[in-house]
Write a structure and sequence with these properties.
Blueprint lengths: L2 E2 L6 E2 L13 H4 L5 H14 L6 E4 L4 E4 L3 E7 L4 E7 L8 E7 L2 E8 L7 H13 L2
Amino acid sequence: MSWICPKCERELPRPEQSHYCARVSLDSLFEGRPPELMLVFDKLLAEVADWDGVLVGTTPNCIVFTRRLTFLVIRPMKKELDLKFYSKVAHPEKPVLKSVASINKFENHIRIALLDDLRPALFRYLRESYELLA
């Protein structure tokens, strides 16, 4: 059962869950950035938001996707989106730029800028992160 913070109105997986408490519009995160970044984000959102139990929230720097825990963080940068997701094993191969050990998992980063960057392998990584943090 999700909970809505009375201060920032962000929907969270658990009552009183710790979070960055601020009202941030999604559009403000894309101001001054190439229009295609918003299209890329919209495609990601359309896929991931339909997965069971996914909640989407915004902070001053990123968009956070949670189920029970955060499984995806998308940070709009000047010319690309940084996607942070988690896995059981390291992903040293491209398109993953960085794969760092964390407690019982690996934190991975991919950067994308174009609709053509949205390949099936990327969605498999995101689904793996979603299932890992169920």
